[in-house]
Hints:
The protein is of the alpha+beta class. The chain has one domain (3-61). It contains two helices and four strands. The strands form two sheets. Strands 1-2 form a two-stranded antiparallel ribbon. A two-stranded antiparallel sheet has the order 3-4. The longest helix has 11 residues, at 3-13. The termini are close together.
Amino acid sequence: MYKDEIKSIIGENCHGYDPKYELSMMSAGGYLSPSCDNCSNFVKGTCKKNLFDNMKNMININ
């Protein structure tokens, strides 16, 4: 599984997901899907709530 796919799966299922943009997650190109990259808690490749690694490990196990 690719890194971007994992970030999307985590973003869609994370209870700590907080979108960076309040405007209905809309952009000029369309809908921004939930992803760690679009989460305000994901800064410089690290989850400030320490949720990313646990969720990634669960995904990789399954």
